[in-house]
Specification:
By secondary structure, the chain is an all-alpha fold. The protein has one domain. It is 71% helix and 0% strand. The protein starts with 5 loop residues before the first helix and ends in a 9-residue tail after the last helix.
Length: 70
């Protein structure tokens, strides 16, 4: 049995995706060379952590039975 309800997992995924979106600007600035690797390092590490968390949460979602669709 799952520890968390499906809606809560989906909500946590949405929150982390919002956090990624919130740091897209810094990622683009880094990609364009406007900020240094040193200045971007902390943001990059946090974005990697959020992606890993999203992957873990999405794996948890696979444990739920498929929605039959009404």
């Amino acid at each position: 049995m799952n520890d968390k309800p499906k809606y809560l997992i989906e909500s946590e995924i949405a929150v982390r995706k919002q956090m990624l979106t919130g740091t897209d600007y810094q990622a683009l600035k880094f990609a364009e060379g406007a900020i240094s690797p040193e200045d971007y390092a902390e943001i990059k590490a946090q974005r990697e952590a959020w992606r890993a968390e999203i992957n873990e949460l999405e794996a948890e979602l696979t444990k739920f039975p498929e929605d039959p669709g009404i």
